[in-house]
Give the backbone structure.
Amino acid sequence: MTSEDDDDVGRKGGRKGRGLAFRNRPPADEPPHPSSPEQQFKNDFAARLSAAMLEKGWNQSELARQAALHMPSGKFNRDNISNYVKAKHTPGPVRTAALCKALRIEPIALFPSGSAPATNASEPPLDLKDLGDGTVFVRINKRLSSAKALQILNVVMGE
């Protein structure tokens, strides 16, 4: 090994030019703005999940153990709970169902009540507004089952 080779070793055991191998996804280019609707949703979910855990007297590890009992794989990592409580991520439908079964609550109890306006018969069931920058504001004004609402959240949140 030459001295030139010594300079190439280091970054997480890799070599220059080969790129870093990430076990997880590489970090996002830009974190969501703290006041963005997506981050507010995550913050609200985190607060509701923390309150439900506190009510049961459980820590993150215990919630993960109890939720694992309701997972098809039988596994639920405490790190997932940590990411939810820190408002870094929200769970998809399968993990949400497992959390709710473990906590013995309905899924709607974990999701922010202000995330969508109340059903109002005077407004259309679907409202789309072009924001002119390649994005669209979508409002759904329709009564849905919790399962269908979770499916929509899954699409919107990108899980």
Notes: The chain has one domain: 34-157.
